[in-house]
Specification:
Number of strands of chain B: 9
Structural class of chain A: alpha/beta
Radius of gyration of chain B: 29 Å
Family (chain B): Belongs to the ubiquitin-activating E1 family. ULA1 subfamily.
Oligomer: heterodimer
GO molecular function (chain B): NEDD8 activating enzyme activity
Number of helices of chain B: 21
Largest interface: A-B, 78 and 81 residues
Number of strands of chain A: 15
Order of helices and strands of chain A: HHHHEHEHEHEHEEEEHHHHHEEEHEEHEE
Structural class of chain B: alpha/beta
Radius of gyration of chain A: 27 Å
Distance between the termini of chain B: 48 Å
Strand order of the largest sheet of chain B: 4-5-8-9
Distance between the termini of chain A: 51 Å
Shape of chain B: elongated
Strand content of chain A: 15-25%
Strand order of the largest sheet of chain A: 3-2-1-4-7-8-9-10
GO cellular component, one term (chain B): cytoplasm
Helix content of chain B: 40-55%
Protein name (chain B): NEDD8-activating enzyme E1 regulatory subunit
Number of helices of chain A: 15
Order of helices and strands of chain B: HHEHEHEHEEEHHHHHHHHHHEHHHHHHEE
Keywords (chain B): Ubl conjugation pathway
Chain lengths: 474, 508
């Protein structure tokens, strides 16, 4: 990954000319430093990028083979490199700062959220006066005003609002997301940009994806080269599905304060609709949380369970993940270091996964996550579906959602029958769901599906449909 | 006042869930001092200001240079203003004077400052964290004489179930169950702890009162449990999730209850033996627990009182939970009596969080770091650690040796290697001389690859922001651990290699 280079061999040979040029530039720089507060074109003052120049203008023993010391790499960073940051939250704020102070100037940031007071303990680009405003906007404003020459463009939207034409423009994409689904979608988008020639990926279509995640005092950072190294879906087992309490425990056998809270949230709220018909529970509304809290306390005292607190209630209802500034600082720093390495070839890139924890001392573990041969996202191989011809479509649906390697949320299944496209089942549009629901109870044979039939499955976890091949076991 | 408190609780909500209100209180009562507002220093402070540290003071006599964010103020003042902005709950100030307490001059020489400051702080028993970003390498050194931790928050703590030696109340509770006479509903919702206890009794009668010890025996015990699952009319086993849980937990539930060596070490410290009026609370409480262990607990710690969630109906679970809870309270009051009598003997009273200590008795930790003087002295340098790590020439230890070498370089040449473009090549050979003299002086028969010497010249003591930010996050959390006395600090040298994204901790 780097700018093209062309040494002007003639001027190199002319040492005197070069020396004259150097002295001229030096004199100019001195003049700039003396002028109080004056900045020359480009917004750079003397010494501003000294710390970077040491790595970019000198050869070193740990650089990538294609690294060539010179001024052009810094130029590339400052003027050409376009980098996208997904998320302007705990990781995003740190990332924007890190990138801006590392010479990246052409930065875009995407975040659909608005600022909440509970963000302020770590998302330092925001102040209490900013609560309620869109994160991407405030973050961009802050960086643009404090880092001269840096241009951050905010997008207060969902990542799904953009298509290939948007993402294709970037040299590097860094994610500071808080959802596995969003990560998988981003992963899928970059994979969809790949061009293959004779089964080999065209390297110029690869956009490196740097992904960071944190939770409490733990975090991880990874580098993904779509089509070449392990992608998010290759290692889906590293993100185990969220465990919910069994309904029978919540409904009739609570033992923990959490069970009492879930009872109020899942069963009592829909039944009593305490704030009006059709008004759903809003985790950000303190009155709603207070209601759940009180109901949970009632239930808890009925069963002699202790430990229901307002804080616990809020935590369970909102699925709160504890967070501090320090962990986000560490992980975002690691991600930004990798962005710098990728953009400059100044050092070997992380290959490819870093795990961090500072609960007991400080612990890091670095390893190479392996690609999955039959990865549903990046392997280009139609996924194998093994079912008996007398299995029901419902069984297939269950497999798609429950398998740890797929973990789909609400898959829509279509296929081609007698030359025509047919939707077998789709959940996300009410009218289609109703129309196709009877198909769930039909067997695959009854639906007219044959051995070897290809099914196309769409889901929120991926921007592209996933191809499956049906293999009848009986 | 109340509104402000509520706003703070909301602001700090995400971190309160990690260190609790008492941890936050400790943080808000703390005052930290940062010496040198470098990129690393300001990053550390940022990560302390955001979570609400009580106060900070920056000591720095430097002017802002072009390499710092373009600002013509003095560095200490500039940093203080920027950081103050991040959190209005925090009070910050700065000192530009180069004379600190004790009237010694702050040296331009980094190492000199460290060692002298280190000595002062060691005597004053003030924890000292030395952080440095040098090229793509970050280094942290913790210097604290003794740091005790009650709430270490261990990741994979074993439960304290006492199945190998059930206390009387537990035994009575277990006896109150008769699995054979139970209806299916009750049978399937009996806590697995009861089930394992019952079948253990059966096992004892057939195995000379010995617990299942090895894999074979544990597997046989699991089979015994499987046989205990109810069968339907056709003789097929019913779906009894509680029995599945029992089988799964056989591995850990049947281990002998005993005190870990870490805790034994704490009990055998001098501080535990000789209680005086000056003994810190931690040691008085540790001694009280030790007295319990020896006089009342039959060699075991007081009962912890918690059990994990498990498949069971509410009544059975709560009843069982209460058996453990009440025993824990009982044991705690005995420990409390020991505390009182210890304090009486030295003429004191207390208002300590005794229950917190007792619940965490199995997870107590003590961290003791060597002083900088010990690390740097030829007589006490940790040669073994250094040489054994260097068996791998790319171990992070080589980065430590390089950092020691560049300080040596500075002492001789009054600048860091590679700072000036035109001198890089020359500095490489001069640095190599420093490396060799360091190794020789300390009698370290290790070899340092030329690549590292080259790299440490190449970087010209630059402080890249992302490496400073990484270290800043690490250091801030270590400071928070010291202040809140929760979670366990590292001991005592942490090296981060941003080139390979690896790290290591050495005890030097």
């Amino acid at each position: 990954m780097h700018c093209g280079k062309a040494w002007d061999t003639e001027s190199m040979a002319d040492g005197d000319e070069l020396e004259k040029k150097r002295r001229k530039i030096e004199a100019l720089s001195e003049k700039m430093a003396v002028d109080e507060g004056h900045v020359a074109c480009g917004g750079d003052w003397d010494g501003r990028w000294n710390h970077l120049k040491k790595f970019l203008e000198r050869s070193g023993p740990f650089t990538l083979p294609d690294f060539e010391p010179g001024t052009e790499t810094l130029q590339f960073l400052l003027e050409t490199c376009k980098i996208l940051v997904i998320g302007a939250g705990g990781l995003g704020c740190e990332l924007l700062k890190n990138l801006a102070l590392s010479g990246f100037r052409n930065i875009h940031v995407v975040d659909m959220d608005t600022i909440d007071i509970s963000n302020l303990n770590r998302q330092f680009l925001f102040r209490s006066k900013d609560v309620g405003r869109p994160k991407a906007e405030v973050a961009a404003e802050f960086v643009n005003s404090r880092v001269p020459g840096c241009n951050v463009t905010p997008h207060c939207q969902k990542i799904q609002d953009f298509d290939e034409s948007f993402y294709r423009k970037f040299h590097i994409i860094v994610c500071g997301l808080d959802s596995v689904i969003a990560r998988r979608w981003m992963n899928g988008m970059l994979i969809s940009l790949l061009n293959y020639e004779n089964g080999v990926v065209d390297q110029s279509t690869i956009i490196p994806l740097i992904d960071g995640g944190t939770e409490g005092f733990k975090g991880n950072a990874r580098v993904i080269l779509p089509g070449m190294t392990a992608c998010i879906d290759c290692t889906l087992e590293l993100y185990p599905p969220q465990i919910n309490f069994p309904m029978c425990t919540i409904a009739s056998m609570p033992r923990l304060p959490e069970h009492c809270i879930e009872f109020a949230r899942i069963l009592q709220w829909p039944k009593e609709e305490p704030f009006g018909d059709g008004v759903s529970l809003d985790g950000d509304n303190p009155e709603h949380i207070q209601w759940v809290f009180m109901k949970a306390q009632e239930r808890a005292s009925e069963f002699n369970i202790t430990g229901v607190t307002y804080r616990l209630t809020q935590g369970v209802v909102k699925r709160v993940i504890p967070a501090v500034a320090s962990t986000n600082a560490v992980i975002a720093a690691a991600c930004a270091t990798e962005a710098f390495k990728i953009a400059t070839s100044a050092y070997v890139t992380l290959n490819n996964y870093l795990v961090f924890s500072d609960v007991d001392g400080l612990y890091t573990y670095t390893f190479e996550a392996e690609r999955k041969e039959n990865c549903s996202a990046c392997s280009q191989v139609p996924q194998d579906l093994q079912f008996s011809s007398s299995a029901k479509l419902q069984d297939v649906l269950q497999y798609l959602t429950e398998s740890t390697s797929l973990q789909m949320k609400s898959p829509a299944i279509t296929t081609t029958l007698q030359g025509k496209n047919k939707t077998l089942y789709l959940q996300t549009v009410a009218s289609i769901e109703e129309r196709t629901r009877p198909n769930l109870c039909k067997t695959l044979k009854e639906l007219g599906l044959a051995d070897g039939q290809e099914l196309a499955v769409a889901d929120v976890t991926t921007p592209q449909t996933v191809l499956f091949k049906l293999n009848f076991t009986s | 006042m109340a509104a402000n408190k509520a706003a703070k609780e909301q602001k700090y909500d995400r971190q309160l869930r990690l260190w609790g209100d008492h941890g936050q209180e400790a943080l808000e009562n703390a005052h930290v001092c940062l010496v040198n507002a470098t990129a690393t220093g300001t990053e550390i402070l940022k990560n302390l200001v955001l979570p609400g540290i009580g106060a900070f003071t920056i000591v720095d006599g430097h002017k802002v240079s072009g390499e710092d964010v373009g600002n013509k103020l003095n560095r200490a003042q500039a940093a203080t203003e920027l950081l103050q902005e991040l959190n209005s709950d925090v009070s910050g100030n700065f000192v530009e004077e180069v004379r600190a307490a004790g009237s010694y001059e702050m040296s331009q020489i980094w190492l000199d400052t460290c060692l002298r400051l280190g000595a002062v702080l060691w005597n004053a028993e003030v924890p000292f964290l030395v952080c440095r970003t040098y090229g793509l390498v970050g280094c942290m050194r913790l210097v604290v004489r003794e740091h005790t931790v009650v709430e270490s928050h261990p990741d994979n703590a074993l439960e304290d179930l006492r199945l190998d030696q059930p206390f009387t109340e537990l035994k009575n509770h277990i006896d109150s169950y008769d699995l054979d006479s139970m209806e299916k509903k009750d049978h399937s919702h009996t806590p697995w702890i009861i089930i394992v206890a019952k079948f253990l009794e059966k096992w004892y009668s057939e195995h000379n009162f010995q617990m299942p010890k090895n894999y074979k025996e544990k597997e046989a015990f699991r089979e015994l449990l499987r046989q205990g699952i109810l069968k339907n009319e056709n003789g097929a086993p019913e779906d009894e999730e509680n029995f599945d849980e029992a089988i799964k937990n056989v591995n850990t539930a049947l281990n002998a209850t005993k005190i870990s060596s870490t805790v034994e070490d704490i009990f055998s410290c001098d501080l535990c033996d000789n209680i005086t009026a000056q003994t810190p609370a931690f040691w008085v409480m540790a001694r009280a627990v030790r007295d319990f262990v020896r006089d009342d607990g039959n060699g075991i710690l007081p009962v912890r009182g918690t059990i994990p969630d498990m498949i069971a109906d509410s009544e059975k679970f709560i009843k069982l939970q209460n058996v453990y809870r009440e025993k824990a309270l009982q044991d705690a009051s005995v420990v409390s009596k020991h505390v009182e009598s210890l304090l009486q003997s030295v003429g004191k009273v207390h208002g300590w969080h005794l229950n917190n200590f007792i619940t965490n008795a199995a997870f107590l930790r003590v961290v003791r770091c060597r002083s900088l003087e010990e690390e740097y002295s030829i007589e006490s340098v940790n040669k073994d650690e250094i040489t054994s790590c260097m068996d791998n020439p790319d171990s992070e230890m080589v980065l430590y040796l390089m950092l020691r070498s560049i300080d040596r370089f500075y002492q001789q040449h009054s600048h860091y290697p590679g700072v000036y473009d035109y001198q890089v090549e020359e500095d490489i050979s001069r640095l190599k001389v420093c490396v060799n003299s360091l190794l020789q002086e300390y009698g370290l028969s290790v070899s340092v690859k030329d690549d590292y010497i080259h790299e440490f010249c190449r970087c010209g003591s630059a402080e890249p922001h992302t490496v400073a930010a990484f270290l800043g996050g690490c250091a801030a959390q270590e400071a928070i651990k010291i202040i809140t006395q929760q979670f366990v600090p590292f001991n005592n040298t942490f090296i981060y290699n941003a080139m390979t994204q690896t790290s290591a901790t050495f005890q030097l």
